[in-house]
Every structure is written in C-alpha cells, then in structure tokens.
C-alpha cells in the first residue's frame, strides 16, 4: 500500500530509503519529489523490482598479470556498482575489438570504461562507438563515461579532446570542486559534498565542451572534469573503480620511462590519500535508476 494511501497505491514499489524516508513510496509522491512525470516515476519504481541490466562498453585491455591481480576493466566497475546495488546484472562488450551491441535497448544503461587509447586516434571502432553514443542518448537510454569514456562522449557530441600541452599527468588522488553552475545539481548527484576525491591517470582531457554539456566539477589541471548531458549522459575524468594498488602499479611501470624518478615519487605520495569511491558509485547507480525512459 502506498505511503499516503492515494489512488496510486497499487503502483507502490520499494526504493532506497534515501529517496523520501520510506521503503515504499508511491509513484505520485516519487514524481513530486524528483520532478518527474508520473509515467517516468512508475518506470523508475519498476526498475527496483526488475533487475537492471547494465551494458559495459570495454574500451581497452589489461595485461594478464594485472587482470589476475585486479580483475578486468569491466569487473572493477561491476564490483563498484554492486557494492551499491547488488541486484544489478551486467553484459560486457569488447568494443575495442569491434564487439558492439546491436541496439541501445539491449540494456537499461550503458557504461564506457577507460582505455590506454586516446579518443582523438579516430580508430574505426572509436568512430563506431561515437555513433553508438549518439544513438543511445537520442533514445534516452542513460549512459556513463569514465576517463576515456568521458572524453569519447564529449568528442562524439561535438566537444574536443586534447593532450595536456606541457605533458603533465593527472595522477593518483585528485580532488574536483563540485559546481552546479547557474542551476542546481541533478537529483542523482544529491550530496552535501562540495568536492570529490578519486584516483586519476590521464594526460588527455576535454578542452572544449559540447554545446549540450553541463559542467558539474573539475580542478585547475582538468577544469572540465565532470559533465552531464540532460537526463541521459553523465561522465567523469576520474576513476572511482580503481584502487590505490592499481594506480601504484601503473605508475611504477612508468618510472624512468614516461615519468622521471622524481615525478613518480611525487605521484606515489598521493596514491593512498582518502577517496570518495562509495559516493561516486552511488551517483552512478542513482543516475541509471532515475533516468530510465
């Protein structure tokens, strides 16, 4: 039965207690709380009953040694998201091997991983991925991009991605100031936090925003660090899925090669700083749940 006994009580469905103070919130109250149409509110409630399927668009590979130690790019995201919502199910697509979904409707939401590639390489699979990004957002299916995923989403939608001019790295734990700009933060991003700290490993970054992008956060090194695209796209340069041990391993292998000894030591001093991965994981799950078409 609905919380307020209204005429929509038969549509009541369990949702997270953070969404209104009750385990059961009827569709009309949910709609009022989030500013949704009743149809979308009902759909969002039903998603709590149905096991939501997330398609992971894998944009690169790891060495066998790293996969044995840390898991794959896909399983690291699955671990993060399942720590927030254990009922999620996943389907992985190795898009870097040209393995793609046939239709955006195959999954309830999509996530693009990081990669050792650069978005501006314009490899054939990247061009196909950019077309899929546009098709997915046009179909109002929610999509998240992380690191390379953040960059390729921006590029697909008319933005620009470039390597940092001086060759500097965004490395280890970086902190982004959160800023909703002239408008409020999206409902799925609700938090009292004014900043977020997560692991980073990049030189490339989004330098020109797509016209439909909203800037939500960044820092001096990477001003365009967190973006949203209406109710269907969310992307972030930082890595909520990566552990300190993973980042330490990555930058140790760069010591004396792409980074000097001194630069590497400075990175490793920051690798064990506190991170906000649980907060980022909550944002991601809520984004998927609240933005079903």
TrEMBL record:
List GO terms (cellular component aspect): cytosol
Q: Where is the Glutamine amidotransferase domain?
A: 105-244
Q: Which residues form a coiled coil?
A: none
Q: What is the designated name of this protein?
A: Glutamine amidotransferase domain-containing protein
Name its species. Answer: Cohaesibacter celericrescens
